[in-house]
């Protein structure tokens, strides 16, 4: 296969960026999209150029590091992570546009790398319990009803990649935040501080500059782990309940 990759090149946060086209030859359909970027960088380094900066880590679809916009879609044409997207999803001779996440909460650092530490700060604002609980209890020491366990597990699969933000026309982080709230608040350990947690996490989300949710559903369509739209409805209920409680 021979592909043309138009990559967003931006030397720094304050620099002006642009799409630059690069031909990449002799790639195989079974190669992953990140391997395509690896091949491009090998060619650029061999020619004495600057390689394209992009995030990656496990390359197994579970760490959430590899987020890029491919042909206008977060993670590309398949509902998966960019590292698990294979070149068989494209045709020989295709032109592929590769851009970073586009959101106020994810400022560009260089090329395809964006600053996603806003997600870390949302988790830090509520992803813990304040009571000293000692060492970890034995497994199954605290009974958890199956519906609650299923809800927690379904939302704990969120890998924090940011595709929901990149896909949302408002740049909203509601799906990410709702997944964390549902995961933590549905378990017995998170119950006593659930009101404080949801208020703090939503406040932090707003302070980080993410947009509001208007239920367009693009976040769910792009989420590689299938976090449901119902999680956002759950967050809204939790937030309204916590807000009423805090005013009493």
Can you walk through the features of this model?
A hairpin with a 2-residue loop joins β6 and β7. Helices cover 35% and strands 11% of the residues. α2 runs antiparallel to α6, α5 runs antiparallel to α6 and α6 crosses α8. The strands form two sheets. Strands 2-1-5-3-4 form a five-stranded mixed beta sheet. A two-stranded antiparallel sheet has the order 6-7. The relative contact order is 0.14. The longest helix is centred in the last third of the chain and has 17 residues. The chain is α+β, with helices and mostly antiparallel strands. It is elongated, with a radius of gyration of 20 Å.
List the helices and strands and how they pair.
Layout: E1 3-9, E2 18-24, H1 33-46, E3 69-70, E4 73-74, E5 95-99, E6 108-110, E7 113-114, H2 117-126, H3 146-156, H4 163-167, H5 174-185, H6 194-207, H7 218-222, H8 230-246
Helix pairs in contact: 2-5, 2-6, 3-5, 5-6, 5-8, 6-8
Q: Give, in spatial order, the strands making up the sheet with the most strands.
A: 2-1-5-3-4
Q: What are the low-pLDDT stretches, counting only 5+ consecutive residues below 50?
A: none
What can be said about the biggest beta sheet? 5 strands, mixed
* Average predicted local confidence, pLDDT: 95
SS elements, strand count: 7
Secondary-structure element sequence? EEHEEEEEHHHHHHH
Structural class: alpha+beta
Q: Helical stretch count?
A: 8
Overall morphology? elongated
N-C termini distance? 65 Å
- The helicity comes to 25-40%
Q: How much is the radius of gyration in Å?
A: 20 Å
Q: Roughly what fraction of the amino acids lie in strands?
A: 5-15%
């Amino acid at each position: 296969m021979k592909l043309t990759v138009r990559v967003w090149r931006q030397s720094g946060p304050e620099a002006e960026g642009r799409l630059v086209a690069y031909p990449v030859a002799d790639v195989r359909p079974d190669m992953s999209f990140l391997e395509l970027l690896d091949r491009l960088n090998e060619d650029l380094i061999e020619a004495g150029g600057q390689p394209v900066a992009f995030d990656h880590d496990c390359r197994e679809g579970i760490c959430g590091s590899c987020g890029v916009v491919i042909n206008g879609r977060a993670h590309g044409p398949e509902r998966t992570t960019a590292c698990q997207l294979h070149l068989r999803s494209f045709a020989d001779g295709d032109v592929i546009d590769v851009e970073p996440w586009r959101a106020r909460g994810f400022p560009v650092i260089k090329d395809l790398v964006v600053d996603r530490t806003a997600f870390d700060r949302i988790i830090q604002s509520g992803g813990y319990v304040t009571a000293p609980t000692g060492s970890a209890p034995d497994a199954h020491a605290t009974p958890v009803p199956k519906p609650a366990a299923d809800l927690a597990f379904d939302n704990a699969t969120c890998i924090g990649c940011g595709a929901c933000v990149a896909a949302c026309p408002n740049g909203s982080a509601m799906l990410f935040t709702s997944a964390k709230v549902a995961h933590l608040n549905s378990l017995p350990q998170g119950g006593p501080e659930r009101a404080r947690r949801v208020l703090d996490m939503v406040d932090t989300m707003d302070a980080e500059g993410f947009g509001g949710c208007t239920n367009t559903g693009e976040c769910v369509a792009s989420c590689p782990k299938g976090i449901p739209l119902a999680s956002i409805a759950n967050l809204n209920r939790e937030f309204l309940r916590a807000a009423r409680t805090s005013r009493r």
